[in-house]
Amino acid sequence: MFSVLLFGCGGGGGGSQGGSAGLIGFAGNSSGQGGSGQSGGTASGGTATGGGTAGGGTTGGDPSPIPSTTALVTRLGKPARVLLGLGAGNPLDQMKSQDIHPDIVDTYLVGVGAGAWPTWNSPDGAYITYTAQAIQAYGAVPMFTLYQMATTGEGNMSAVNDTAFMTGYWAQVRLMYQRMAALGTPVLVNLEPDFWGFVAAQAPNRDAAQIAAIVSSQPECSALPNTAAGLGQCLVQMGRQIAPKALLGFPPAFWSGTPAEIAAQMRAVGAHQADFIVAQTTDRDAGCREVPSPPAECTGRTGPFYWDESNQTSPNFHESQSQISAYRAALGNGLPILWWQTPMGVPSTTPGGTDLHYRDNHVDYMLRNAQEYGDTHTFAIVFSTGGQFQTSITTDGGQFARLSSQYLARGGATLK
Question: Which SS3 state, helix, strand or coil, does residue 308 take?
Answer without folding.
Answer: strand
